[in-house]
Amino acid sequence: MSVPATEMPVSDDRLYRLLGQFQAQYASAIDEDQLEAWPDLFDDACRYIITSADNHKAGMQAGLVYADSKGMLRDRVSALREANIYEQHSYRHMIGQPLIKARDGAELQAETSFLVVRIMHSGETLLFASGRYLDHYRLDGERLLLRERIVVCDSRAIDTLLALPL
Amino acid sequence: MDSVTTITDAPTRWEPGRLSRVPYWAFQREDVYAREQERVFRGDCWNYLCLEAEVPQKGDFVATRAGDTPVIASRGRDGEIYAFENRCAHRGALLALKERGNVKEFTCVYHAWSYNLEGDLTGVAFKDGIKGKGGMAPSFCMEDHGPRKLRVAVVHGLVFGSFSNDVPEIENYIGEEVLSRIARVLAGRKLEVIGRFTQMLPNNWKLYVENTKDSYHASILHLFFTTFEINRLSQKGAIIVSPNGGNHVSYSAIDPEAASADYAEQNIRSESEFGLADPSLLNGVDEIGDGVTLQILSVFPGFVLQQIQNAIAVRQILPKGVEQTELNWTLLGFADDTPELRLMRLKQGNLVGPAGFVSMEDGCVGGFVQRGIAGSADEDAVLEMGGEDAVSSESRVTEAAVRGFWKAYRQEMAL
């Protein structure tokens, strides 16, 4: 008896493609100033933390950003739009190939390196951040949702400020 | 002979004794910067070095700086904390290459001169030569060589160091009023570091110091604070300025009775509609039990202790050239934190640091000034809010603490 197509488990090859597509969507939401779409890439129950490699290695919990709900991600976007003052700038994400660390049914752990270039309105372009995304996804059919993204920056130093998410 | 760097180039105009004017050249000049290194950071001042909790065991060390000067703070064999230059007495190389760690001794990688945990030279490689040839002169005395040592003082878990023998005892230097406000947050509690971040600021270090002492700007520049009533000028609160001007406390407590009319009457950007989808960020507890929701405290030249609700942090302000500043954030918890309180600290951590809802602006506004004053070396900043003196005040609509900084700065700099 054949399994209906909609219930076919996503193959590893397919999953790899989905991850690539997801990362591209993630980068596009931030880099193309579609920040309002960024929280929707997360599951309703989620965590998003930006930290440094040193802090992560030492097991220190505090983040540059520490969100444990989708609402907090939306608030980050609202604050950037409505409250916070910073000079206009944008990012360009370069995201590496996902390394799938573990998969258990619809639950997935992956690790992906990134580079972020910051472009100021004045034209100044700076290599702003590099690091790893330590991700925990949930597969909803063929849709990936982030249950957790820990952004581990290689450097502990941030130039001027960190406004847009990484 | 005066060995201190002299201010040679015009302009040097700075009206004596007038605290309400600051010429912009003070933020721009290499000769001023060099003089600060000598007279402030290596002068009669206490530099914040690290937390006692960061060097709990014998041999633990932190490599930091006092101004430009690299410094090691270490826990010695007798359990006391020592501080000395991170510089080999031989040819000047760094002794500690890592920022922190645990060692039995410090050995210079260049020629393996070694030092004990207290900073004394204890070994010179090939001191007696090999097979009777080479080696140091018989007259060479290791006791006569070593990195300069700093005086060390520990105050409620904060480690300060000074190159000066003349600087007052730390308690007198900080002053009773400000000291009691350090004790309020830290006394008798076992600290835990929960995160460290560095923010590189595109401006002179004094512009960030001014910012931390500027209670006037807080509720105007930082909309997030104002909207959620963490800090309104109409709250109860006050400014404490130490007698010498260099240290300050600004604090406030939520006053639900206070109307927001002060703001509505003025065309201040802070008055706008804004709501949070997940207000759990602002959940806090009155852990100290005195209703104070915000306390920003500074010790001259570059130390800040911050309590914003349950987000507690120390900030170390380090100059890195005339137009760059390294701001080191150390976020704190306490050993007896409940999981609920710890989570509050982590979530409120969103308020502070380089990505902080109420501090990210402080990261860029100094740069706005640094860029704005290019070409205006001989113009002055105007610091007249709340008068022209540098005294404590019940109103936070004042620049008294900023003037206090300049009072202490001009005293130390003899400017």
- Global morphology of chain B: globular
Distance between the termini of chain B: 18 Å
User: Mind telling me which CATH architecture of chain A this is?
Assistant: Roll
Number of strands of chain B: 19
Uncertain segments of chain A: none
In short:
The complex is a heterodimer of chains A (166) and B (415). Chain A has 166 residues and is an alpha+beta fold.
Describe the structure.
The complex is a heterodimer of chains A (166) and B (415). Chain A has 166 residues and is an alpha+beta fold. Chain A has one domain (3-153): Roll (Nuclear Transport Factor 2, Chain: A), CATH 3.10.450. Chain A has helices at residues 12-31, 53-57, 70-83; strands at residues 42-52, 65-67, 89-95, 99-104, 107-120, 125-140, 143-153, 157-159. In chain A, strands 1, 2, 3, 4, 5, 6 and 7 form a seven-stranded mixed β-sheet that branches. Chain B has 415 residues and is of the alpha+beta class. Chain B has ten helices and 19 strands. Chain B has helices at residues 30-41, 170-174, 176-186, 205-212, 218-221, 223-227, 261-264, 339-348, 360-372, 400-413; strands at 21-23, 47-51, 60-66, 69-75, 81-85, 100-102, 106-107, 114-115, 121-123, 149-155, 158-162, 191-201, 236-241, 248-253, 292-299, 303-308, 311-319, 325-334, 380-382. Chain B has a seven-stranded antiparallel β-sheet with strand order 2-11-10-5-4-3-6, with no helix packed on it. A seven-stranded antiparallel β-sheet of chain B has the order 12-18-17-16-15-14-13, sandwiched between helices. In chain B, a hairpin with a 5-residue loop joins strand 4 and strand 5. Chain B starts with 20 loop residues before the first strand and ends with a helix. At the A-B interface, strand 1, strand 2, helix 3 and strand 8 of A face strand 12, helix 6, helix 8 and helix 9 of B.
